[in-house]
Write a structure and sequence with these properties.
Layout lengths: L9 E7 L2 E7 L9 E10 L5 E9 L3 E5 L10 E10 L2 E5 L3 E2 L3 E2 L2 E4 L2 E5 L4 E8 L14 E10 L11 E3 L3 E4 L10 E9 L9 E9 L5 H4 L6 E6 L7 E3 L3 E3 L5
Parallel strand pairs: 11-18
Antiparallel strand pairs: 1-2, 2-5, 3-4, 3-6, 6-7, 6-8, 6-9, 10-12, 12-16, 13-15, 13-17, 14-16, 17-18, 19-20
Protein name: VWDE protein
GO cellular component, one term: cell surface
GO molecular function: signaling receptor binding
């Protein structure tokens, strides 16, 4: 009879010896007496296929994988697949169980926005799902992101003045203890610019670039853009003619 794992494998971020790691946990510490585990770490390739990163054999109810920028890079989606077996019968393994995908890097929440050209502010959160590593032991430990926008028309052509305004052109991610929601976060507001032009709905990309003074692991990493769709709203018109007759915004 094949045994089964007590828990579905779960990946969580961990800071170990000031290095960013992912931890795969798959058993209660007291439930795996005498069990051995084979842990397969994999990631999604650009083509959407799973690539093996590393394979571990351990008696521990967890396994670590370092985000080293080579075998595991920021921006990767990672999985761990675990099978259990007894030391004396390694050929009799349990059915493998796979974790949900874990995105290691910086992401925007929400991942896309649809807003109207009405001047209202919308909150955009920037979240790091992995620990912020620091080579210096001082208060200046942080990751700085330079923010910019690129406006695209319906035919993906640059058109007109900016259609989106950001409350800040730069945000800092400071290291905090990792929780289920992430390891560092910052927020800004996004507003659709009221331009008094009937230019139709437009698409803007909000981009983040890691400052060159940040840690080496982060410098070569570019987070995924946020797509902001701005709904064009009709604007009022007023007229003045002859000596004088005035038609106001409300038509009088």
């Amino acid at each position: 009879k094949l045994m089964s794992l007590a828990l579905q494998p779960v990946i969580t971020p961990k800071l170990v010896a000031n290095r960013a790691h992912l931890q795969c946990v798959y058993e209660h510490p007291s439930s795996g007496q005498g069990l051995h585990y084979e842990v397969l770490w994999s990631r999604l390739s650009d083509a959407g296929a799973k690539e093996e990163i590393r394979r571990d054999s351990t008696q521990q109810p967890f396994s670590y994988l370092e985000v080293d920028g080579v075998h595991l890079r920021l921006g990767d989606t990672v999985f761990c697949t675990v099978t259990a077996f007894m030391k004396d019968t390694p050929d009799q393994q349990s059915l493998p169980k796979e974790s949900s995908g874990f995105y290691a890097g910086i992401k925007f929440l929400p991942e896309s926005l649809q807003i109207a050209e009405d001047g209202k502010e919308h909150v955009l959160t920037i979240l790091s799902t992995v620990p912020i590593t620091c080579s210096r032991n001082d208060d200046s430990c942080k990751i700085t992101l330079q923010l910019s926008t690129e406006d695209l028309g319906k035919n993906s052509r640059l058109v007109g003045p900016p259609d989106v305004a950001l409350s800040s052109c730069q945000v800092d991610l400071h290291p905090t203890p990792c929780t289920v929601s992430g390891c560092a976060a910052a927020a800004l507001t996004v507003t659709a610019v009221t331009d008094f032009a009937r230019d139709g709905d437009r698409v803007t990309h909000v981009r983040a670039k890691v400052d060159e003074g940040s840690e080496p692991l982060w410098r070569a990493y570019t987070p995924t853009d946020v797509q902001v769709t701005v709904q064009d709203l009709p604007t009022g018109n007023c007229y003045s003619f002859t000596d004088p007759h005035i038609i106001t915004f409300d038509g009088w």
